[in-house]
């Protein structure tokens, strides 16, 4: 419905840089990622990513799935909504972490001579 007012999103990068964009309530998280990627701000050059597919939005501490629309989040109209924008290919696998820790302890034990 085009009578819906646009939603003002303030996106915050990990580095702390911010930029505001206007979106429609029908825009999904993946639409937003693509739009931001296509209109990457000049002062975000150091954070430039290789593909819009790895851009993830975090709203109130939760990762948004690509098909979630802004309208579905019931954002307050007329207010700026703050989201974090992070580059992540996938969410980390729980088991890769354990392996890395095991290797670390293996290294430290190898040189202990009693």
Automatic annotation (TrEMBL):
Subcellular location field: Cell membrane
Domain Ubiquitin-like: residue ranges: 7-85
Superkingdom of origin organism: Eukaryota
Signal peptide: none
One CC-aspect GO term: plasma membrane
Keyword tRNA processing: no
Record keywords: Cell membrane, Lipoprotein, Membrane, Methylation, Palmitate, Prenylation
Main location (coarse class): membrane
PROSITE patterns: UBIQUITIN_2
UniProt-listed InterPro entries: MUB, Ubiquitin-like_dom, Ubiquitin-like_domsf, UBL3-like, UBL3-like_ubiquitin_dom, UBL3_Ubl_met
Mode of membrane association: Lipid-anchor
Name of protein: Ubiquitin-like protein
Provenance organism: Aotus nancymaae (Ma's night monkey)
Taxon lineage: Eukaryota, Metazoa, Chordata, Craniata, Vertebrata
């Amino acid at each position: 419905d085009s009578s819906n007012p646009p939603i003002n999103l303030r996106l915050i990068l990990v580095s702390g840089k911010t930029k505001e964009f206007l979106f429609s309530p029908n825009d999904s998280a993946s639409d937003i990622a693509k739009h931001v990627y296509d209109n990457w701000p000049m002062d975000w050059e150091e954070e430039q990513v290789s593909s819009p597919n790895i851009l993830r939005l975090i709203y109130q501490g939760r990762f948004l799935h690509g098909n979630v629309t802004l309208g579905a989040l019931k954002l307050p109209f007329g207010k700026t909504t703050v989201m974090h924008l992070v580059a992540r290919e996938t969410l980390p696998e729980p088991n890769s972490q354990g392996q890395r820790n095991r290797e670390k302890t293996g290294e430290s034990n190898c040189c202990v001579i009693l």
